[in-house]
Amino acid sequence: MRRFQFKLEKLLEVxxxxxxxxxxxxxxxxxxxxxxxxxxxxxAESRSRTGREMFAPGRDLEDFRAAELYMTRxxxxxxxxxxxxxxxxxxxxxxxxxxxxxxxxxxxxxxMKERKQAEYYRLALREEQKALDDLARRHVVEAIDxxxxxxxxxxxxxx
Length: 159
Prior knowledge:
Oligomer: single chain
CATH class of the domain at 9-113: Mainly Alpha
Number of helices: 3
Number of strands: 0
Helix content: over 70%
Low-confidence stretches: none
Largest sheet: none
Order of helices and strands: HHH
């Protein structure tokens, strides 16, 4: 039995390549969102810690003012990080949509390949069975011709 060859194999490879490329872009965007989210949590923890330490015993007015300025800077960082995160999430969703589109394109060709391959092997098995049946019939007919006197008479009459 010959090996199955899919005529659109090159197209399937190209689509698989583009899908993998889109998947890597999506992973990069998701990683950026995770980093920004982690940084936001760190800023929130720093602000909370500074707020608690601001009124600790033994702090003077300069410490209070420094803590207040630090919290203002943390608030600006938080706002900037929130904007970056919103932008990164938008890019991630765009990358996700692109990846899903590429995956569907590859899967459609992949399913077509599976159907064609199943059809090919089903037909190949049918042809192989037909050939084996013909071989068996010929063998039975030859065995009957050699055993029966009528078969030899036909051979004599033909000859």
